[in-house]
Amino acid sequence: MALLTLRESLSIDVGEWFCIAAAMLYAGSIILTDRLSRQDDPLTLGILEVGFIGVFALVASFLTEKPRLPAGGVEWGVILMLAVVCTGFGFTLQPVAQRYTGVERAGLLCALNPASAALLGTLFLHERLGWRGFTGCGLVLASVVLSHFGEPVKRKIAEERAT
């Protein structure tokens, strides 16, 4: 992640501390979602989660800036796409999917977000991603692949040691 976010000086500024704090809170959210989705209806949990995020974001927007409505149809389309697809589907269906998988796998899938966003931004929006960014994406993807395929290898080694 550092290769994707830090600048040439490799120093950690305020923005990076916000990212670290957000990542820790998101990890806590994944763990809490794992526990709650097994106890209650995960779809209701996801809807409530998105609802509270919307209310808190609305309050924060009025406290920190002067909100304005979008002027054109393109802006409304982008907002609708972000609200429905990214937030609505993503955060509402995550508890449903997480009920049927482990917290580790959910965390690994969420770890793909920064790398996939960087790669898709490069591909579709022609954003510049230097060698450090591509290296960071590669390391994130490699860690997810290795952790996914590492489990069967660990089990096989444990079984061989047990016999």
From TrEMBL:
Pfam families: EamA. Keywords: Cell membrane, Membrane, Transmembrane, Transmembrane helix. The keyword 4Fe-4S does not apply. This is EamA domain-containing protein. It is a multi-pass membrane protein. Residues 15-147 form the EamA domain. GO terms for cellular component: plasma membrane. Gene3D superfamilies: 1.10.3730.20. The keyword Cell membrane applies. SUPFAM superfamilies: Multidrug resistance efflux transporter EmrE (SSF103481). Signal peptide: none annotated. The chain crosses the membrane at residues 14-33, 45-64, 76-94, 106-125, 131-149. It is found in: Cell membrane.
